[in-house]
Amino acid sequence: MKILAVCGEGIGTSVLLKMNADRVLKRLGIDALVEATDIDTANATRDAQIFLTTAGLEDRLVKGPAEIIAIEKVFDLEELSDKLSAALL
After folding, report:
1. Which residues pair with 69 in a beta bridge?
2. How far is CA 51 from CA 24, 33, 55, in A?
3. What's the predicted TM-score (pTM) here?
4. Rounded distance, CA 65 to CA 24, Å?
5. Is the pLDDT of residue 63 over 90?
6. H or E element that contains 86
7. What angle do CA 19, 25, 28 make, to 5 degrees?
8. Are strands 2-7 and 50-54 parallel, antiparallel or unpaired?
9. DSSP readout, 1-25?
10. Is residue 9 over pLDDT 90?
11. What does the pLDDT average to over 50-58?
């Protein structure tokens, strides 16, 4: 499974989302590759199952095969866990 953590430039918020997603997925026992990237790269990608982004950026992602999960609070591991669990379990 491939998850893309997405922000505008792919070097700030996406890296935080990636680190937190890795932590949450480990706790959930889910094996997934999580990569940090920018919006343009995400929109050109067709092999990801989930786009993980912050609220407000989800409208800039192209609707396609990947489910888009918008996170309100980047450091809220419970929110991230709830939303990833709902999508993956």
Report:
1. 52
2. 15, 12, 12
3. 0.92
4. 23
5. no
6. helix 77-88
7. 145
8. parallel
9. -EEEEEESSSSSHHHHHHHHHHHHH
10. no
11. 93
| Secondary structure letter of residue 6 according to DSSP | E
In this structure, what is the dihedral angle of CA atoms 35, 71, 29, 4, given to the nearest 10 degrees?
-20
Which pLDDT band holds residue 38 (cuts at 50, 70, 90)? very high
DSSP for 28-76, written as a single string: HT---EEEEEEHHHHHH--S-SEEEEETTTGGGSPPSSSEEEEES-TT-
Strand pairing partners for 35?
A: 4
Positive/negative CA dihedral, 76, 79, 81, 84: negative
Q: Give tens-digit pLDDT for 68-86.
A: 999 999 999 999 999 999 9
The full set of domains in the chain, from first to last, is: 2-88 (3.40.50.2300)
Distance CA 80, CA 65 (A): 21
Amino acid at site 78: E
| Cβ atoms of 20 and 11 closer than 8 Å | no
